[in-house]
Design brief:
Strand content: under 5%
Structural class: mainly alpha
Largest sheet: none
Helix content: 55-70%
Number of helices: 12
Shape: globular
Radius of gyration: 17 Å
Length: 264
C-alpha cells in the first residue's frame, strides 16, 4: 500500500479530486483487483466507486462520454501507483508448484476471471442499497467505475507477468505506475530504460492521448453491459474476460520474445 506522501503526490491530472477522495478511490480499486473477492463484495466496492464518481464530477458529467472518459483517465492515473503488484516470491507462495509459463497461464486465467466477475457484478449491482436511484445503476456512471476497476486488474497482471519472466518493474510506486500505464495502453512489455520519474512526467501528451483512445475503445465496447439486467451481466462478464485474455496473451508474447533475445 502506498505511503501518505505518495498519495499526496499523485493528484489527478486535472486536479479535480483531493487526497481523501484519492485514498478512498485507490483503496476500493485495489480491493477489486484481489482474486479472492466474493461477488457480493465486488458489488459493494463498485457501489463505492459510483458514489465517488458522482461526488467528484456530478451525475450530468458522467452521462457525457467525453466527461466520463476524462474521469476514467484521471482515475486510472490516480490509482495506478497503488495497485498491489506481487513479486515473484509472493506469486510462487500463492501458487505452489507453478513457475514460468505455467504460472503465467494461471495469472492470466485468474485475472480474466476477476474482470469477468467485475462485469457480472456491474450487471447485478442494482441489488445493492446505495444512495443512488435505480435508474442510474444501468447508466454510464456504473460503466465508468467498472472500466477503472478492470484496467487496474489488467495493469496488475502486466506487472506480475513481468515478475514471472524475470523483468520485475523496479522503482517507486509512482515510477512503476507510469510504466504500467504505458504498457497497458501500448499492449506490450515495459522498457526498463523508460521507468522513472512521476506519473505526471510519464503522462506526456502522446501517452495521455493513447491512454484515452484505448479507454474510449474499452468504454464503448462495454456499453453492451447496459442492456437488460441479466443480459448485461452476462455480456459484461464475457467481454471483460475475452479482453483480459487477449491482453495477457499479447504481453506474454512480448516478454517471451524479449527473454529469447536475452538468452540468445
Amino acid at each position: 500500500m502506498a505511503q501518505p506522501d505518495e498519495l499526496a503526490e499523485n493528484q489527478p491530472v486535472d486536479g479535480s479530486a483531493g487526497p481523501v477522495d484519492e485514498a478512498e478511490l485507490s483503496t476500493a480499486v485495489a480491493a477489486l483487483t484481489d482474486e479472492g473477492v466474493e461477488q457480493k463484495e465486488r458489488r459493494r466496492l463498485l457501489g463505492r466507486l459510483v458514489r465517488l464518481e458522482i461526488r467528484e464530477r456530478g451525475v450530468k458529467d458522467l452521462f457525457r462520454p467525453k466527461k466520463a472518459i476524462n474521469w476514467i483517465t484521471d482515475s486510472v492515473t490516480t490509482v495506478a501507483p497503488h495497485i498491489p503488484v506481487r513479486d515473484l516470491d509472493t506469486l510462487m507462495q500463492h501458487h505452489p508448484g507453478l513457475e514460468g509459463d505455467a504460472l503465467a497461464d494461471r495469472l492470466v486465467r485468474n485475472a480474466a476471471r476477476v474482470t469477468a466477475g467485475i462485469g457480472a457484478a456491474g450487471g447485478g449491482v442494482a441489488a445493492v442499497e446505495w444512495a443512488v436511484t435505480p435508474s442510474l445503476l444501468s447508466a454510464p456512471v456504473l460503466l465508468a467505475a467498472e472500466t477503472v476497476a478492470v484496467v487496474a486488474v489488467e495493469m496488475k497482471l502486466i506487472g506480475e507477468l513481468h515478475a514471472v519472466y524475470g523483468r520485475p518493474v523496479e522503482g517507486t510506486g509512482t515510477q512503476r505506475a507510469g510504466a504500467l500505464i504505458q504498457a497497458w495502453a501500448e499492449r506490450r512489455g515495459i522498457n526498463p530504460l523508460k521507468v522513472g520519474g512521476s506519473v505526471a512526467a510519464a503522462m506526456g501528451t502522446a501517452l495521455r492521448k493513447e491512454l484515452r483512445d484505448r479507454l474510449l475503445q474499452r468504454f464503448g465496447r462495454n456499453l453492451s453491459t447496459l442492456g437488460p439486467f441479466l443480459t448485461g451481466a452476462a455480456v459484461g462478464g464475457f467481454l471483460n474476460r475475452r479482453a483480459t485474455l487477449a491482453l495477457g496473451t499479447e504481453i506474454r508474447k512480448d516478454l517471451q520474445a524479449g527473454r529469447k533475445v536475452i538468452e540468445g
